[in-house]
Design brief:
Helices cover about 35% and strands about 25% of the residues. By secondary structure, it is α/β, with parallel strands linked by helices. It is globular and about 75 Å long. It binds fructose -6-phosphate (F6R). This is Glutamine--fructose-6-phosphate aminotransferase [isomerizing].
Amino acid sequence: MCGIVGVVGNRNATDILMQGLEKLEYRGYDSAGVYVANGDKFSLVKSVGRIADLRSKLGIDVAGTAGIGHTRWATHGKPAEVNAHPHQSATKRFTLVHNGVIENFAEIKEEYLADHSLLGQTDTEIAVHLIGKLVDEEGLSVLEAFRKALLIIEGSYAFALMDAQDSETIYVAKNKSPLLIGLGDGYNMVCSDAMAMIRETNEYMEIHDKELVIVTKDSVSVQDYVGNTIERDSYIAELDLSDIGKGTYPYYMLKEIDEQPTVMRKLISAYSEDSQVIVEPDIVKAVQEADRLYIIAAGTSYHAGFAAKNMLEALTNTPVELGIASEWGYSQPLLSQKPLFIFISQSGETADSRQVLVRANQMGIPSLTITNVPGSTLSREATHTMLLHAGPEIAVASTKAYTAQIATLAFLAKAVGDADGNEKAKDFDLLHELSIVAQSIEASLAEKDVIAKKVEGLLASTRTAFYIGRGNDYYVAMEASLKLKEISYIQCEGFAAGELKHGTISLIEDGVPVIALISSDQAIAAHTRGNIQEVAARGANVLVIVEEGLARETDDIKVVPVHPYLSAISMVVPTQLVAYYATLQRGLDVDKPRNLAKSVTVE
Ligand code: F6R
């Protein structure tokens, strides 16, 4: 989704902005632009397409020591240069970049800007025209005009504003959309994502919703919208520059799939001490006190919630309900007496989940966020946080975060079960079982060539495909089908194997690929085998991914068995590789699928 980077100070702003925008590419975008100021000289350059296209348009005259840049993921108005940010006020004195959605932009246009002609269709252009008008016509200072505009504007935003009459200052503000300050020696930065600043600094300062920040090369002043100063400490982030590189890998997705055994081992060391599982006592207590756990998430993270549901219920003895975050925004079920909301989010910034968290906070419902990003919005605003320790996930298609989410929930379930004296928890040696999971993943990763070959005949030219499974395999089927469709553009459904014959089997015809998942239980496996026969009899091209022990000689991909609570982790890995190779074979960009954004910061 849209990204912002800004810098002011003693550095080459064009270089820093362009490198920052390149680091923001992974979030998904369709156009980009930069505004660079050098004293009283300014350059504004925009381009549709990749950052490389923008770079090719930059002349040597685009130079200076302050500037703002933006990657845009279209919401209002199609991807076009005229809609790309930065946008400028009527007189071009003010220049603005924006992430988010201004909900009352039509009303603002009608009430304040009826006589203004705008170049494009974006809500952002309306915001910068409004600021310009407040300065020009009401005689307000920049700060007063920005403040007043912020009180008029409704919706989600992260803004970075520059004034041509003072190119030494960047004004920023945020509400619901992420934005951070980066602190340097003789320069300061603003950015929607720490990853775009990590080359320059690892010292950051948070901005909270409805705060306005004035950033110069050697000062950062945080204020509320009334003008009161807010004291805020900075912090040092534990990000490593090498974590965000691709190394020798052709794609981030493959690197991240390969990192999964390491992530499992990192989680073991993060959540254990002296061979005992350790989770913060307050978090354990919050689960113990709840009479129902509500897991709220989107996409892959939602699927991880399903994959952990049975284990959580068995070990905590508490019912677990799942909610799609975007639905819960307006349609929340009747809650139990003592609910605990668990938000699962790789980025910690998903707007759909956040709107549910805001409501939970208003209702006084305790919450736990399980996220990969310390200090993210969902982490800051929830009562408790557990981290995924997966390292930055850059590929749009989530892989290592999904498996880390299930493993982290396993630590939570085990810690609560141990504290409760739950018999099933006693029998579940999580540290040992997770190390077997790491080995099982390694064994699957060693079969990449085999998997690539199997996929070749199956998915290279199909339009549709199915994943089927029962129990936990059904939940993996949901995730596996999302992975395949989001990057290979094959329309793929993840189906409960037994449900197929109740309607969807009518779609099975000669050559339709059906990938069956079989793990954990002999009796369930026998039923899935029956469903395989049914689709094969109707011409389906079947590929079987099965745990050794349940495997038949003719099965295609065999997975080293793990504890049934954790089977979703080991079973999903071959399906991640299936999606990866199918996409490569179809000649598509694995890391940057069309229309998608890594961090979905609008509702
Ligand atoms: C798919 C994928 C998405 C995200 C979803 C939620 O590969 O990554 O479905 O899982 O957008 O994002 P987070 O987990 O950041 O809340």
